[in-house]
Amino acid sequence: MSELTLTVLRLGFLVLLWTFVLTLAGVMRSDMFGPRVTRSRAPKPRQASTPKPPKGAAAKSSRRGSARVLTVVEGSLAGTSVTLGTAPITIGRSADCTVVIDDDYASNHHARISPHESGWIIEDLGSTNGTYVQRTRVAGAMSVPLSTPIRIGKTVMELRK
Amino acid sequence: MSALDVTTAAVSKKSPKQRRGTELWLLVFAYAIGVAAFAQVDIVLLDQLSADFTTFALVFGLGLVAAHVSLRWLAPHADPILLPTVSLLNGLGLAMIHRLDLAEDLNPTDPDYVAQLGWFVLAIGIFFAVLLFVRDHRVLQRYTYTAMLIGLLLLVLPLLPFIGAEINGARIWVRLTLGPRTFSFQPAEVAKIVLIVFFAGYLVVKRDVLALARSRVFGIDLPRGRDLGPILVAWVASLGVLVFQQDLGTSLLFFGLFVTMLYIATERRSWIFIGGVLFAAGAFAAYQLFDHVQLRVGIWLDPFTDESGNGFQLAQSLYGFASGGVLGVGLGQGHPDFVPFAKTDFIMSAFGEELGLTGIMALLALYGIVIERGMRTAVACRDSFGKLLAAGLSVAIGIQVFVVVGGVMKLIPLTGLTTPFLSYGGSSLVANWALVALLLRVSDAARRPPEVTRREAVT
Questions:
Q1: Neighbours of A137 (CB within 10 A)
Q2: What confidence score (pLDDT) does residue B220 get?
Q3: Does A100 touch chain B (CB under 8 A)?
Q4: Which of A37, B135, B383, B444 is an S-S bond match for A100, by CB 3.0 to 4.6 Å?
Q5: What's the CA gap between B56 and B62, in Å, rounded?
Q6: According to DSSP H, which parts of B75-111 are helical?
Q7: What's the gap between Cα A2 and its chain centre?
């Protein structure tokens, strides 16, 4: 086998290997910024079913009404976010909740956040220590504005766009 | 309600978050590189493609397809990058083992590569079984203390008479004779995964207590005295492994794993500090007391004074890296077989010689990617147990790669762990595929949109 072929094989393989590594890096990048693409598509199906809020005439304000993620701001799960769909989200210590918080002050099934005509509402599921939106304790169903702290035990979460 | 659930499931099927298609073409790419490596070895050394090449191309390809299909079926939202990355590592390992077989004999009678390909098939089977039986990683939390018992049992197994065996100075093997064949097995590789499950389950419950601080010394919050119990137990256990099984690598891996998970669970830097002090004390005592530790350290400090004796292996490994240089001598064109145990502990030096610094950096980048995906899974996971589990599993790969590659490159004393996915060795390959299956299971839960979680919880 000629020296040239061997060199081509040798260097070609290294190029192949690094092409793979760089491809992976590209996929990782798209994966990291992927949710952005999802966000711009996600509201479309909901807008069809959601009537526009009374005040907002422009499309911008109707989009403002719909949160797309629930982000944990404080507590052991801080930094975690859950993409909101059309189904309600349950929060609590039990493993079958959507967001499982292991917080000594949280109940097994603590609260539920569900979509409503004009946005998201929160219900307390009979927890021991209560659910707070800003400073008010949730009794019955209560609507949750964007970027408002929801406090459960030591965990604080927010609805965000 | 059920009608609504069906529609939401249909929407999420289209969601770009699944990315199984991306995984498929990355997998094809990884497969192509593995096959290219194998073909290059054959062409350079034999001037033709051997019969082994056909079996490799078939079995390796079918194995990857099986792994991909099981993910599509059992974990559709799992990370798309993990599987192709470990597949490529596995393929390169198989090609290098084949290459070392040929270095021993151009017409090998009982090639190790065939055995390793068999282990690969079994590993894919285990990968599938883990995904099938562990449908939700949170179930594992129920078995926290069972996992502890099984893990400790597995660690002790090689010390038992009859089934335990000592190979190459380390008593870390279990040998079973079934009919005409003898099977050797390293239970520590499995113990690694089981103990991570235990650490995660235990720390998730106890972390609030372990994060309590009593006094502050030099800017470090020290924990209360009685909370030192668990770390001391882990320390004593890993010292036990070191003393009775003479296995430096496993001992280091377990202690490092526990300390790292403790740090991740409590976010207290003091645990790293305490772990470091305990490790230093243990290492010093071991050095004073045991000949085999002194020998290893002596070789590490200066492999060249006794170059033809004890330092031979490490010296040959360093010569290998040196002759590889930046670009390597090319697959099949070097002499990686000069290093004893090139197929197992020293496979990195074989890669270093034939692929050079450029190739080694690509391999380390692949490991880095596996760890990054694992850590990202931990960050995205919605329950604390899953977070700790995913972090522990990826840290295990990280520590293991660091310890073994560092040893081969003379950065730290040589310990004798396998290089995950690359080295020859059934227990290690099977255990690491099971580890990746668990990681993918957690990542499936972490990346799954909430409505699908709900639908499955209802049914």
A1: 12
A2: 64
A3: yes
A4: B383
A5: 10
A6: 82-104
A7: 58
